[in-house]
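Q: Sequence in, structure out?
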Amino acid sequence: MASTRNQQVLAAHKARFEQQVSGGREFTKLLREIGAEAYRFEEDQSDRARWWIYITLPANVRETFDLRLDVLCLSASYERVEPRTLTLIAERLHDRDARVDPDFAILLTSDPGATELVKRRRGQLAILTINSRELLSGPGIGLRERIAEIMVTHDHYDLTRPITEPAAFYGRQAEVAELEFALDRGQSVGVFGLRKAGKTSLLNFVARQREGSGKPMVWLDISVLQAAEAFQLALLEKCHTIVRQLGQRPPRLMTLTREGNPNPAVQIGSYWIRDLNLLLDALPDRLELFIDEIDQAWPSRSNLGAEQATAVLRCLTQLRGVVQSREAEGKHGIGVVCAGVDPAIFERPLLDGRDNLLYKFARLAFLSPMKREEMQEMVRSLGKRMALRYTDHRTIDFLFQEFGGHPLLTRKACSVASRKRPQNEIPWHVPLSALEEAAERRGPNTPQSEVKDVLASFTEWFGDEAAMLPLLWSEDPQEREEAREWARNEPDMAAHLVSYGITDENWSPRIHAMRALVLR
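A: Exactly. Output:
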């Protein structure tokens, strides 16, 4: 009887979906044609223009595309699909039913621009868009063929921007736990590592986790703000927004109006600390402040110019004063997590012969490349979205040895190798030879060019340490051993080589593809 009742409820919801959604009946027909079963139709209570549909694919389709779990579909009856809609899908994949495949979803919409929007999010979300208007026009491409097409045409390895979606974030469990532990205790942490090693992605992930758990969270990027007043104003405005979102009446400020707009009659720099303290008093918990590109505030390293960098550095010094004074008074203050390449801002006691007041303000955490298991998860998960299989353990071994777990370098090699796929072969078991060939390719947009950029970046920031690499990796055993003995006895001369993942603990290359560039 219970089963019959469930079937009746499903049939009623399905009928409502087909009546309310343009192309809804044609979509359910598309599912039936390949033997797929939609076992749940859920109208979104917060927006009646949305329906969530849960689909079980037939065994042959599951096997071909490695979609072993159920597939989530969002029907969105919008004239235009906004990025927020894709984020909603990502949140459901990440937070909801464990039966749903986290690597693939379907979006049913009448917006012809949705396909391009999804394509721009490749590497983070694998979403098949189905245009409901096209379904109404008559017989078209079957669902199996649509899945195959998107898997062949979307390169999810080709991603150079920081990751914002939790479903696209891999590994780093120890680093996430370390940052959350520090934030829970109000400690400040600086995350530093190689270019494109995943620093901003790590901050993005932790920030979203904290915000999702109800913590007051503010994100600032110094390279975007580029000026001290912009930094001050952005922090005040975002704190003001949080207070309002909590349903509280914001305090009366000098720098902002009641509505949270800048007060043009007041110099922000004169009152921002006063107003920040009032806003912090209005928050129910410690503010968690995430600052990206922190090294842009260090004058000798900054692209902002010495004057602006010095002004931003002064802001950060004032911020440290707020943290210390509130802690001394027993008030909840600010936990700071920041990221950059060069930790000089917290590592060097002097600046131009004077005390650096940010010295040791934040505990240093170095983001080395991924562990082998984390890299393997990333490679196989992104490959799954492209109907690529990495079943030969030698492919994973090769990637880790050649690129040391550096996420960008690894993805670039996989991206180049994927272009060797035989015409529309699905699934394709990636052979070791395709990766070896990809690693050897020269020219722009190749793994070799990215390795060169990473080495150049490290050399720019830590020139003295980079100058040691030809000796540490020398083909002359005596020269190599003397250099390594020097590094052991003078750790400051090679302080970042190990922590940044350029070498292993024994000073041997961790990114083997870098060795030829160093010794040429």
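The two ends are 77 Å apart (CA to CA).
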